[in-house]
Amino acid sequence: MNLKDAHAIRDAVNSGKISAGEWADAALRRIEAVDSALGAFLTVEPETVLRRAGEVDRAVKNKSLPLAGIPVAIKDNICTRNLKTTCGSKILENFTPPYSATAINRLEQAGAVVVGKANCDEFAMGSSTENSAFRMTRNPYDPERVPGGSSGGSAVAVAAGMTPLALGSETGGSVRQPASFCGILGLKPTYGRISRYGLVAYASSLDCIAPFGNSPRDIALLLSVIAGRDYNDATSAPFEVPDYLSGLREPVGGMKLGVPREFFGEGLDPAVRSIIEAGIRNAESLGCEVREVSLPHTRYAVADYYVIASAEASSNLARYDGVKYGYRSPEYDDLIDMYRTSRSQGFGPEVKRRIMIGTYALSSGYYDAYYGRAMKVRTLIRRDYDRAFEKVDALLSPVSPTPAFRIGEKISDPLAMYLSDIYTVTANLAGIPALSLPCGFTREGLPVGLQVLANQFQEGTLLRFAENYMQAFPVSGPPMKFQGISRPEIED
Amino acid sequence: MAISRNEVIKIAELARLHFTGEELDAFTGQFQHLLDYIEQLKQVDVEDVAPTSHVSLTKEFEKHIFRDDEVRPSLPVEESLANAPDPGAGHFRVPKVI
What we know:
Oligomer: heterodimer
Number of strands of chain A: 11
CATH class of the domain at 6-254 in chain A: Alpha Beta
Order of helices and strands of chain B: HHHHEE
Mean pLDDT of chain B: 92
Largest sheet of chain A: 11 strands, mixed
Number of helices of chain A: 15
C-alpha cells in the first residue's frame, strides 16, 4: 500500500477496493516504523484515527467523497477539536481545543482522516523545527540535518511516506522552505485564500494555512476543498474557488516567466544556483519565455518581515497569560507576577526574542520608526511584484539560499537563521501565492526546490506550471538515510 | 541605535517577561545585533507611501467585509473553561487584584 498518492487512495476508498480503515492502519504502521527515527509527530491517537476512518467507510457507502480516507498530518498550530494542539510550546503543552479550524472541518467533511499532529518550531517561529519544546525532527535524506521549518514535521510526514498530504502554515516561508529541504511540494496560497480560523495566530497580516504533497494534482485536490470564504475569518477572500484540477495539464508553451535578479546574488550556494539555473532552462525547453526582472526592494525584505512579524506576534501572544488556558506558574507574588512567571517559564528563547523585538517596535515613540515604516516598505515590496506581473505570468527563483543545513548550525545565531528566509518572505509580505517544487539534488544527496511565484489568486498558474514541469522533468533522489529504512519506497 | 540593559529590562516589563541577570546580558547583545540589522529600513525612501496592513484588500473584497449583526451559537461555558488553569463557579479565577 503506497501512501504517496492521495488520488489513488481516494479512488480506492470510494470504489470500496481498499477501505479508509486499511489506509489509516497503513499510515499508523508506517509512523510506528519510521517516526522514532524522524520525529515528525507530536501526537498520534491510533484509536481515534481508526474510529474516524470507520466513519468514513460508512459514509462512502452512500456517496463518494472528494478526500475519502486520505490520511493527513496536521501541523500542531492548527486547532483540532478534542486533539491536543501544543504549537510546539510548553505554554500549550496540555491544550485541547474545544473547536476545529475551518480547514480541518472542511477536510473532514470531505472524508480525510487526520492521523496526527506534526512537530513545528514553537508558535511557528523558526526555520528548522529546532525551536520545538518537545522533540527534534530530522531530515529523511540526512538525519544529521534539519527538515526546515517551521512546518518541519508536516514536511517529513509527507516526504517519508507517512501521509500523502499534510497541512502546515506559512508566515515567512514555513512551508516552501521545508518542502524544498525534504524534496516535496509546498504551496503557500494567496493571503486569505484559506480561512485562518483555528490557525493559532502568530502574525495575522501574514499567516496562511498551506498544504504539502507529492504532486501538483494532489495539492490542487486539497486546495479545492479547503479554500474559500469563511464566516469566522473576516480576512478570508470572498472570491469563488476555481476547480484547480481542471486545466492542470494544459501546456505552458508561451507562458511568460521572470527571473528576479535580486534572488541570485551574494549568499546563494553554488550547488543550489546550478540546480535552479538548470530548472530555468528546463522551463524554457517547455516553451516558456524567460526574461530577467527586477524586484529592487528585496534587500529590505528580511528586516521588513522581522519588524512586522515580531510586532504582530508580541500583540497576538499577549493572550498567553496563565488565565484562560495554557500554562500557569505554580509560584507567584501577585497577578502581574503570575503573568510574568507563567510567560517566562512557558515560552522558549526564540519566542521571547520576537515578543521583545515586537514590543520594542510598537512601544511609545518607536511605532512610526519601526512598525509604521515597515508597513510602508511592505507597500514598496508589493509594488515591485505588481510591476513584475505586468510583464510576466510567474517568477522562478530558489526557495532558500542553501540546501538543508546541519542540526545546531544556525541555532545560536538568530540573524543567520532569519536570512535563510530571504527568498520566501517577500511572497508573504506581498500576499501572493508561491510554490516549491522538487528540482534536483546536490552531490551530497540533498533535495533542492524551485520556487514559482504568481500574482494574487493565481494558484492555478503555479499548479499548472508545476504539473507540466514535473511530468517533463521528474526528479529522483538518492535513497533516504534514516535509521532502519534504506529506501523511500513504501513496503507493505 | 544603541540599546542599554535598562531599556531591555523596561521592554521586558512591558512584554510581561522576566529575564535572569545572565539571560539579560546575552539578550541585550542579541537585541542590539537585531536592531542594527533592522536599522537598514531607515535607508528606504517612504515619503508619500501608504502603509499596507491588509495585503489582498481590494474594492471587491471590501463589499464583503461587514457581516450582519446576528446572534450565533457560541461555545458552552464548560467547554470554554475546560483548559483553564484555575476555573471556578463558571469563571476564570485569578489571584486577588485589590
